[in-house]
Amino acid sequence: MRWDVxxxxxxNYGDIGVCWRLCRALAxxxxxxxxxxxxxSALGWMAPSGRASVEVHAWSAAENSTVAAGDVxxxxxGCDPPAGxxxxxxxxxxxxxxxxxxxxxxxDYVERSHxxxxxxxxxxxxxxxxxxxxxxxxxxxxxxxxSSAPREAPSAWLAAHGWAPxxxxxxxxxxxYPGAPLDALVPALxxxxxxxxxxxxxxxxxxxxxxxxxxxxxxxxxxxxxxTFDELLHCTxxxxxxxxxxxxxxxxxxxxxxxxxxxxxxxxxxxxLDAFLDRFVAASGLAAPHAGALRQLWHAWSGAGPWPxxxxxxxxxRCACLRWRAGLxxxxxxxxxxxxxxxxxxxxxxxxxxxxxxTKRD
Length: 362
Ligand code: TRH
What we know:
The structure is a single chain. α10 (268-284) crosses α12. The model is unreliable at 355-362 (pLDDT under 50). The protein has 2 domains: 2-144 and 332-361, Rossmann fold, CATH 3.40.50; 154-329, 3-Layer(aba) Sandwich (Rossmann fold). By secondary structure, the protein is of the alpha/beta class. The chain has a 7-stranded mixed β-sheet with strand order 3-2-1-4-5-7-6. The protein has a 5-stranded parallel β-sheet with strand order 10-9-8-11-12. The chain starts with a strand and ends in an 8-residue tail after the last helix. α9 (245-253) links the parallel β11 (238-242) and β12 (257-260). It is 38% helix and 16% strand. It binds 2'-deoxy-thymidine-beta-L-rhamnose. 2'-deoxy-thymidine-beta-L-rhamnose (TRH) binds next to α1, α8 and α9. Residues 10-15, 17, 46, 175, 199, 223-224, 226, 229, 242-247, 262 line the site of 2'-deoxy-thymidine-beta-L-rhamnose (TRH).
């Protein structure tokens, strides 16, 4: 099928990061993809070589009346494709499958909302149906986008990229938002020899903070291609990740991780944090004292509680991450499920436009 993926970059890298990962995953499954994005600048470092079968276009070019809509239109995070394009979607027969890819959450509403239809009663898309597609952690949701692990052993991979730890040193990746309590993190890590790999932005503030620490050193990373960033997550001993996409990829890496959710008004992000922790603790079988320590640390890293007196037990934490990933692997990944979802909806639309049972568009 031919897919049109629309992406508006609101802030940070998550909007384009999720869309680019989705485009790659669709292309890997022999789909043809056009990505329409209002600010493609981050793709310069995130996807320096591009990807066969993925065309990147300026958002404004979708207004051009010669551009026909493909079979499936993905609107990432309710970004509203241009009205001219939506008008051409409505004029197409059969109509494309129109899907709004929503934000990830572990909250219960996701299962209730996944797959709901929103018939368009007015505007350029009048007569079309938009379907809500929610990523998630259970069979009643749309699944998660997956990355793959590097082929080399972590130590060889780190050495090949110039980030080999010294003997006895652990490697910690830090990718965080402004306001993360870096001052508290330094002494918490400090007793163990550690190299901190700091993603661009706030985490770079660790470099001067570790100067007085005998066991810590910090190195600033450049913006890495997404594939390299994913591989790095598999090769560390601890990942501090944020937002949505790096958080998901840290779960696939199954290395202990701390998540800092994107801050939203009224503390909504803390409800997301707790919903995830509840699922993680239940599914990974983490014993109560370890779970309590982990919860306290994650809250503290998001500024929602005091810094804990003790660090979670790392071997129990690592086992929990492995068990959590094993549970996720039992679920089909998001791209595969999305293709299936689009095929089912296309069949319905094909019937509606031809009135012929058995009509199949894919
Ligand atoms: O950048 P983010 O904070 O994105 C956020 C969240 O998605 C949030 O939910 C959303 O509302 C907001 O954007 C608009 O964090 P996230 O989601 O982890 O996205 C980062 C992307 O950048 C991810 O695809 C990984 C990629 N990345 C690289 O490819 N190379 C790098 O060097 C780094 C640091 C990130």
